[in-house]
Amino acid sequence: MLLYNSATRKKEEFIPRIPGKVSMYTCGPTVYHFAHIGNLRTYTMEDVLEKYLRYIGNDVKRVMNITDVGHLSSDGDTGEDKMLKGAKREHKTVLEIAKFYTDAFFADCEKLHIRKPDVIEPATNCIPEFITMIETLLEKGYAYEAGGNIYFDTSKLEKYYVFNDFKEEDLEVGVRDSVEADSNKKNKADFVLWFTKSKFEDQELKWDSPWGVGYPGWHIECSCIAAKHLGEYLDLHCGGIDNAFPHHTNEIAQSEATYGHEWCKYWFHVHHLNTNSGKMSKSKGEFLTVSLLEEKGYDPLVYRFFCLQSHYSKNLVFSWENLDNAKIAYNKLVARVAALSVKAEDEIDAAAFAEGKKRFTDALDNDLNTSLAVTALYDVFKLKTNDKTKMALIEDFEKVLDLGILAAAKKQNADKKNENKDENANVSPELLAYINEKIEARRAAKKAKNFAEADAIRDELAAKGITLLDTREGTKFSIAEV
Ligand code: AMP
Ligand code: ZN
Questions:
Q1: Which residues contact 67 (CB under 8 A, 6 or more apart)?
Q2: For the chain, which terminus, N or C, has the lower number of CB atoms within 10 Å?
Q3: pLDDT (0 to 100) of residue 81
Q4: Does the beta carbon of 64 lie inside 6 Å of ligand 1?
Q5: For position 71, what pLDDT does the model report?
Q6: 353/340 Cα distance (integer angstroms)
């Protein structure tokens, strides 16, 4: 599989260190509020990547952190503590807030068919691991103490800027909102590993450490949680593009300084979901959630479909009109699946199956081109083969796309049956069998282009007061009251 690697800035063949085994790390949510659908675009595309890696035969172990330690919106002692802000807003403790929004996050993920990672680790579970890594960094000379805090010394690295060509001069305060003034820092890009002195006197969660009572910087959690569950080497690290700098850059700095070797080979970054007024962001206060989509009558899987229709490496503009279009297309897709009539006696057509599958894997093998994979799904209906083969292909693709179209189609057919049942509740079984036999005979006559016979059947029924009605869902009938 070819995947764009942000670290090398090239599309590369994805080859895990141990063939067939993939260690995958995902930056998890900061749990001070509901996830917005922008965050969930990132997790949806990561989910497709994970499912595709499994589909092509890999055993994937995926680890996700939960940021429940108040982290600052910058690396200086500035910005705001998001967790504390959330707790104050809701008159709860930080841990209560974290628990509530962690549960809400996974409930949203479930609705979007985003698989739960194999390991989910809250940052507050790993304070001893953070302290151990910071001690190692101090011992190796990559960290220093200043003003009561411990900082990472970025000047000790041969190459700090991995994902971009920034220079120190680029990091002027105010030029990038991720960099703010901190007179303790030796270099502008240095970042905090452990705080004991902070402007947040009311910081709720604090722990003892060799440097005094305090709390960790933001970036250390991902380096340590990845190491705790996946060891010193990672195959794949994922996140939204806003995390590339400074967060992922700092994760690499910490981990590679600790181990003295390359840490993670492939970096997968999902680009943003924007609205017409710019990037969707939690800190802006106003944002769209899965619950809001549901309130407005959208199945969350329509949003998943919407995400899959565009490439992860491009920004995606959200609008209700775009979502409506996705809804219409999704419903049509479900109706087409529902209309397939799979006959037990048919055989899977191996050549057609291989043809359909190749289009699908060609799309995803080429840097996870999900929109082409969706096209491959549409192409299944065009294949010159039986419906059993088509259904088998759709079932196969759904292992990755996971759009819920099979279940939706099944439900649609069951609802239709019930509808017919209700409508025909007063019709005797003998009459029902007679009418159904005539409907089937008429269908066969029409298929054979024997329209005269088809009309004759219609007339025969009409003479008995039975009117046929051809609908998109098939032929229905009504019986005149006598
Ligand atoms: P957070 O909960 O803020 O830590 O973000 C969770 C994930 O969502 C991270 O991987 C972010 O990079 C990503 N993210 C944040 N905003 C957006 C957005 N507007 N579109 C897509 N992904 C985003
Ligand atoms: Zn992270």
A1: 28, 29, 30, 31, 123, 218, 221
A2: C
A3: 75
A4: no
A5: 61
A6: 16
CA 39 to ligand 1 center in whole angstroms = 4
Q: What is the DSSP letter of 366?
A: B
Query: 95 and 70 in contact (C-beta within 8 Å)?
Result: no
465, pLDDT greater than 50:
yes
Identify whether 429 is preceded by a cis peptide bond (ω within 30 of 0). Answer: no
Output the pTM of the full model: 0.86
Per mean pLDDT, which range of 108-112, 191-195, 264-268 is the poorest? 191-195
The ligand 1 atom nearest the CA atom of 272? 20
pLDDT of the residue at 77: 47
Q: Is 42 in the pocket of ligand 1 (CB under 6 A)?
A: yes
First to last CA, the chain: 68
| Mutate which of 6, 24, 30, 42 for ligand 1 pocket (most atoms within 8 A of beta carbon) | 42
Over residues 173-183, mean pLDDT = 54
With 0-12 / 13-18 / 19 or more C-beta atoms within 10 angstroms meaning exposed / middle / buried, residue 361 is middle
Q: How far is the CA of 239 from the centre of ligand 1 (A)?
A: 7
Other Cβ atoms less than 10 A from the Cβ of 179: the count is 23
Distance CA 440, CA 433 (A): 11
User: What b/e sequence results for 217-242 when a residue is b if at least 16 CB atoms lie within 10 Å of its CB, and e otherwise?
Assistant: bbbbbbbbbbbebbeebbbbbbbbbb
Between CA 60 and CA 29 the distance in angstroms is: 21
Compute the CA torsion angle 196, 200, 205, 208 (nearest 10 deg).
10
d(CA 402, CA 301): 9
State how far the Cα of 195 lies from the Cα of 253, in Å rounded to an integer: 18
At residue 80, the pLDDT reads 67
Helix axes 370-382, 320-338, angle to 10 degrees: 30
65 pocket-lining for ligand 1 (C-beta < 6 Å): no
Position 357 scores a pLDDT of: 98
Q: CA 178, CA 264: separation in Å to the nearest integer? A: 23
Give the H or E element holding residue 419. helix 405-423
Burial class (CB in 10 A: 0-12, 13-18, 19+), 482: exposed
Distance CA 58, CA 49 (A): 12
**Ligand 1 pocket, 39 CB below 6 A?**
yes
**What are the structure tokens assigned to 468, written together?**
């046929």
- Distance between CA atoms of 68 and 102, rounded to whole angstroms? 9
Q: Which letter does DSSP use for residue 399 in this model?
A: H
Radius of gyration of the chain (CA): 29
3-state secondary structure of 387: helix
